[in-house]
Design brief:
heterodimer, A: about 250 residues, alpha/beta, Rossmann fold, 4-stranded antiparallel sheet, 10 strands, globular, B: about 280 residues, mainly alpha, 12 helices, about 80% helix
Amino acid sequence: MTMGEEGPIIEIRGVYTAYEGADRPTLQDVSLTIRRGEYVVIGGPNGAGKTTLLETINGMLPITHGDAVVCGHHVRGDGIQVRCRVGYLLQNFSFDPLTPFTVGEVVMMGRFGKIGLFRKPGQEDHEAVARALSLLGIGDLADRPIGQLSGGQQQKVLLAQNLARDPDILLLDEPFSNLDMFARESINALLTRLVAQGVTVVIVSHAFDDLPDRTVRVVVMQEGRIVLDRECAPGLVEQVIRGCGGSTANA
Amino acid sequence: MLELLIQNNIVCHAVEAMLFASIACAILGVIITQIQISSIGFTMAHAAFAGAAVGMFLSINAMVTAIIAGVCVAFLIGPLSDKARVSPDTALGLLFGISMAVAIFFIAYMQTLGRGFSAMGLLFGDVISLYREEIYLLAIISVVAVVFVVLLYKEITGIIFNKKIAESVGIRVKPVYYAMLFVIALTVALCLPIIGGLLLYVWLVTPAAIALQFCYRLSAMFVVAPLVAAAISISGALAGLEYSLPVAPLTAVLFSVVFIVAVLLSPKRRVTFRKS
């Protein structure tokens, strides 16, 4: 099943998500509709449920109540299909210096879900990897062991891994952490380009200075609920999030 | 299989057994060391030991019950680790304790009944006294290990890299992870009574650790580890039989020496400066 260009690419209705053993749901009655090509910034204090929301959208956490449809697939039951079309950059990753994986291999992993069981990467997959590396400007690192790179370079590799599967949606959890100002600028420009091409970007970030110089949609969460959802002019995101009580401290 | 090359039947069998078992264990050892479940060798050994003790108590084939116990524990590792929310290594520790307790209970009880036990002999096999059927079994295990890794190579590498990232890119992590644990545990359970605990523990860890000193790619480790394991194991078997030395301890010592040399020569620890 595929969605029309104009329809919502993410549609969440009354979703509750709970971690095993938790005494209350982490997400409570969350409803959110996101269209193709939107740039959405999620803010809120620590423990507000921002990362949980991202992992609910891509089906990595179980929905205990409600429904979520992403890229035309019901997240409950079709999680694998959803994740093949949704890139998800996890926050705060670092690798052991002896990790036996090169940058090229790590980026290729982004294609594994699409390639499927018992099949080898083909020409198309190698081209997608080369394209992703080139987009991030790290083509020269393809044969380097990932463990020997700096934190910022590793962050770029993981972002390239997500771009390699030509995602319809990019869920980015703190994508600017570990990056120097030049890298932040170039990634910001890249995200703006991707949005213009129709990729939906949902970003959890506290580096508000690095958001694009354009109107973005801001969703503020508190205690597992969405407390604000509105368009926001450039440079006003931090002010809006603070205004509704959402801390801007690192989550 | 190697009769054309090696005329002496005992030597031929020993070399064949060492070749097949070392390849299977070294390939799976790459996974074991990377997902840090090195204690799987000890746990499976004691599960098989418990199975053998139960078999002897019930007067049925102790080898069969040892393998059944090993397979049962193999099935339990993954689900126990997930359901109890503990690391696989902790799950292995729990199963080790249970297996040890069962084995000791039955052995002690048999002694009070005046029945001796010979489970040790079953579990700590000897590579120079093997039947042809046992060598065929080792060959099959070796082929299964290679085919398993080749077929699921993408998924295995993804899981080794990071389970959460693997899940996020669309890999079916849970079934592949359980299959990995099961194939490893089954291989250990089947190899243990044939080749013995000492060599098994060495093959599961040391070849992969040696390969890691030189390889920057997991794919290279999957090739280097079994080659190193086969070369050292065959050398150990030939030297042991030529000079009438115990094969398993000699081979284990050889592995340790090669590992130390590998650490000293590893380019990964070399610091180089280039003055411009």
